[in-house]
Amino acid sequence: MGRILAIDFGRKRCGIAATDPMRIIASGVATVPTHELIDFIKKYRAENGIDFIVVGEPRDMQGRPSESTRFLRPAIDRLHKAMPDIKIVPFDERFTSVLAHKAMLDGGLGKMARRDKALVDEISATIILNDYLSSRAYQSEN
């Protein structure tokens, strides 16, 4: 059993989170510029090993793919092309940014820290990964 990597994809930057090797705890890893995402993942994979990648999939309130999904599809295609042997799992990311801001507020972060969009993206990726680990989809696979 190896790590699971999660990505909160954005047009400018991507939040990254990963599990421990036993897949018990999800932790924020980094926020990287989108154009550096594939190189970052390749390096992280070489150093830490990854079994598969969970990508936050934007959805509207009815559960349908949202408008921003059109930016995500080409990114997933590039990931597949760069790493054809790794499984990529889309997973609903509704409300993760709201939950990330709430977590920052509840954690006592100051106003300036809460404005750090890179930190919000990393926390969002961690929430996506935690939600995935708790999901029926993951539970039925293991």
Describe this structure in words.
- The chain is α/β, with parallel strands linked by helices and 142 residues long.
- It has helices at residues 37-48, 69-82, 96-106, 111-114, 117-134, 136-141, and strands spanning 4-8, 13-19, 26-33, 52-57, 87-92.
- Strands 3-2-1-4-5 form a five-stranded mixed β-sheet, sandwiched between helices.
- Helix 3 (96-106) crosses helix 5.
- The longest helix has 18 residues, at 117-134.
- The radius of gyration is 14 Å and the shape is globular.
- It starts with a strand and ends with a helix.
Helix % is 40-55%
User: Please, how many helices?
Assistant: 6
Residue stretches low in confidence (pLDDT < 50, at least 5 long) are none
CA-CA gap between termini: 10 Å
Q: How much strand content do the residues show?
A: 15-25%
Main sheet characteristics: 5 strands, mixed
Globally, the shape reads globular
Strand order of the largest sheet: 3-2-1-4-5
In angstroms, what is the radius of gyration? 14 Å
* Average pLDDT reading: 84
- What string, H for helix and E for strand, traces the elements in order? EEEHEHEHHHH
Number of strands: 5
Judged by helices, strands and strand pairing, the structural class is alpha/beta
